[in-house]
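Table S2 (text version). Query chain:
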Amino acid sequence: MTRACLAVALAACVLVPAEGIALQDAAVNVWVNLEKARGYLEAAGEAGFSGVVLIGRADSVVLEEAYGFAEIEHRIPMRTDHRFRIGSLTKPITASAVLVAVDRGLLSLETRPCDLIPSCPPSWAEVTARNLLTHTSGIADHFGDLESVPVEATFEELRRVLDSLPAEEPLRTHPGAEYAYSNFNYVLLGALLERVGEAPWERILHDWVFEPLGLATMAYDDVYAIVEDRVRGYEREESGGLRNIDYDDHAAYAAGGLLSTARDLFRWSRGMLKGELFGSGLVEESLTPFRGNYGYGWQVRRFFDRTIHNHSGGIDGFSSHLAHYPDADLTIVVLSNVENDLAILRACDVAARLFDWPAVSVPSEPALPPRQRCGL
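Corresponding structure-token output:
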């Protein structure tokens, strides 16, 4: 494949200033230092970071910056309104649509998807929607068995895979017993939404999630369509150069098939967390970790001695991460169009500076181990 080298990283910045350059976090009496975060990002951009970073405090965007190139061959600078494939960051958005259905009485968390999805093996009969949401279904991950098909053909492709499974296929564990992250769990949730919502999955997301929250740039990523403002994805080689990524993944569906701007991801997270999509009881339940520190589409952990609600995404050519620190009401969104520039580590580097965490590095220094970069 042709290799493209990124020699210079351009930076476009939109800074929405608060009073001064730092915001006081009254909830925990620390200083959220925007200047240090911005300095880190500028250095990262000069070192080759390509993407968009957004920092939000409560409902306000306090920092929004773009670095690098949206399309390297033609030297198109990145903009903050560019749209990225978000991979598995799709999962909490799919989960929010499931919880809308629960809130409307169209299903319950104890609904058994295989009562509505034909061709499931008999051993899956006791698996519930809650098990799929929390990755505790015990079902083997058959995501790799799905062929890449257009989104409207995904339900039938799922049926083909289910029909091909042996009738006696067992569960790997009893439902609810163990956590095992699985794209296939969320493919099944997409199919369940189509059954109870009586519409295609992407239409359900639009009507139940995108439109109510005003998310104009969030949509299913049709790899063959001409999509306005969509960024091109790349992979960084060991030499430091970049190479193009082929777009051929149509089967990501409800597990990883969306694209979005950073701003719409922020809007979605604020609307969901504030109960604008479903009741506060379901919001709280969705953020309660079950096995593997995973709730309903959210990973719940502690970074920098603080609770963090977060999810990452990785798909050909792209890496994404959304983190919310509830004690500071602080949100960080990182989107990169270089798949092996892990967005979660960039987000941790930003958070370390916002919280004045002592052990931090800059791009010119040897990288700290990932756990240290995330305050672990």
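Notes on Table S2: The first strand starts at residue 3 and ends at 4. The mean pLDDT is 88.
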